[in-house]
């Protein structure tokens, strides 16, 4: 390892997923964190994946549809999204919501989001 590096979410390059939704990521050897910025009025995109997802709302509010359940999650609250369950989230209220997703092990399809960290692992 080349040293311990500290990063700030607001300084990382954000990937625009679609209008109103952007994300950045940070990884370790065995886990991945993805910060999502969800703007009011953003389009929902229900989807599923084989990864367990732990979602922590940092700011604002997020309405999650998880299978047949609909829950509203606010700052400081967490929710689990099981693998292979259809789900989506949307910002509620009039402020940008920030939610932090945790995946373990890291998702290979999100590896491009953490290329800036390569020096941390060589």
Instruction: Give me the side-by-side strand order of the main sheet.
Output: 1-2-3-9-4-7
Tell me, briefly, the overall form. Answer: globular
Head-to-tail CA distance between termini? 6 Å
Fill in the CATH topology.
Jelly Rolls
Q: What structural category characterises the helix and strand content?
A: mainly beta
How many beta-strand elements? 9
The level-1 CATH class: Mainly Beta
| CATH homologous group name | Jelly Rolls
Keywords:
mainly beta; Jelly Rolls; three-stranded antiparallel β-sheet; 9 strands
Fold blueprint:
Elements: E1 15-18, E2 21-27, E3 32-38, E4 53-59, E5 61-66, E6 69-73, E7 78-81, E8 87-92, E9 97-103
Antiparallel strand pairs: 1-2, 2-3, 3-9, 4-7, 4-9, 5-6, 5-8
Task: Give a written overview of the molecule.
It is a single chain. This protein is mostly beta strands and 122 residues long. It has one domain: Sandwich (Jelly Rolls), CATH 2.60.120. Helices cover 0% and strands 43% of the residues. The protein contains no helices and nine strands. A six-stranded antiparallel sheet has the order 1-2-3-9-4-7, with no helix packed on it. A three-stranded antiparallel sheet has the order 6-5-8, with no helix packed on it. It is globular and about 45 Å long. It starts with 14 loop residues before the first strand and ends in a 19-residue tail after the last strand. The model has no long low-confidence stretch (mean pLDDT 95).
């Amino acid at each position: 390892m080349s040293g311990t590096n500290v990063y700030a979410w607001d300084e990382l390059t954000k990937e625009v997923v679609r209008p109103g939704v952007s994300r950045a990521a940070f990884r370790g050897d065995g886990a991945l964190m993805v910060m999502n910025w969800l703007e009011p009025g953003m389009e929902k995109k229900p989807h599923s994946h084989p990864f367990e997802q732990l979602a922590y709302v940092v700011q604002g509010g997020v309405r999650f549809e998880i299978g047949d359940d609909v829950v509203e999650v606010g700052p400081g609250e967490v929710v689990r999204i099981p693998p292979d369950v259809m789900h989506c989230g949307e910002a509620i209220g009039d402020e940008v919501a920030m939610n932090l997703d945790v995946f373990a092990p890291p998702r290979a399809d999100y590896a491009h989001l953490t290329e800036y960290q390569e020096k941390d692992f060589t």
